[in-house]
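--- STAGE predict ---
source: upstream dedup step, 1 unique chain passed
mode: sequence only
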Amino acid sequence: MSTRLTKKRWATAFGATVATLALAACSGSEQGSTSTDDPIVVGISLPLTGDFSEPGKGVQRGYQAWAKIVNEKGGLLGRPVELKILDDQSNADRVVSDYEQLIGQDQVDVVVGPFSTRLVVPAARVAEEYGMLFVEPAGAAKEVFEQGFKNLFYAAPAVANDHYNHLAEYVLGLPAGQRPTTAAYAAMDDPFAQGTAYGLKEKLEAGGIRTVVDEVYPPNTTEFSGIAAKIASSKADIVVGGSQYQDGVNLIVALQQLAYQPKLAAFSTAPTSPEFAAAIGNKTEGILAPTGYTQQAPYPSNVEFVEKYTAQFGTPPEEDEANAYTTGQVVAAAITAVGCAEQGDCQRKLVEWVRGNTVETVVGPLSWDATGKPQGAHMIQQWVKGEIQIVLPADAKETDIVYPKPAW
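--- STAGE serialize ---
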């Protein structure tokens, strides 16, 4: 059975607003005139409390794992890496003030992004104003790349609207007698969540699959009986949830209670969480989700990441942790290649290097277009016989996709 099913819930208390992680580096050769005792300080604002706290803490662990592994190898440019982390409380106004403090007051050397498109866009504006490189792990909605940012790069294989590309191809490629004809969509009012759901919606509608329910709900929604009733009464062949974690869980539970049985059920983010199976009563069979990461990926840095992350935290990494680690890898590659890490003209050099190069990461090789959009696609996972496995695309699958979906 996959190690993804044996994970225990990682729980930790974040009582302080500011969490600073200073990790001692192994000795490394000094480069240039900078003292090896002078750390490279990486500024980060994360939602450690509020609506996005669950994935926010995962991103924090990914950054922490990256810093620890880098420092065990002697740091960057012979200097230790130090993380300075602020809690933005899942608030867009707070994330702006956090990055203004980190860059303008604290004078950190480099910054990396928070979790959630809702926080990445305002944070990126601050970084752009200061001329800072801004590699980020979770701003995947297409609107991120329509702002005209010159310094932003998303450190994952694909943007939100392309997460379900392989699933759309599969569904539309089914024989006419098996192909679903109707679909229901419910999405959080969040650019990432809506982007994943509506990216699939656009492709399926173009292929002739009719939309019979289209609901958008506020991020703080906890009661889903009304939306579930609309979906169940529509008898849609497909249900698609543009969800984060808790909202996805609550919607699925509400649909289960109504005994609604779709032929296909896809939810972003929630099904890949280690807490998901228990949260929905272990009725997971057949549920699909896009993912940009698998612990089984053979990339050399991923093998190391999984081993050392598991030793550090006691459980294997998930996608949020991997995206943060990948963000660190991109920044580290740029700093190493350019030979500097500080505010000022160095940032321009770092941006130019990332824009013109491919970086090997735990999610594979990454490169970007002029808007900072990655040039790839997500894999599709499905819960099959009690564990979540890659089913699409064919050249990456761990098992065959199950369609129609078994009863939950």
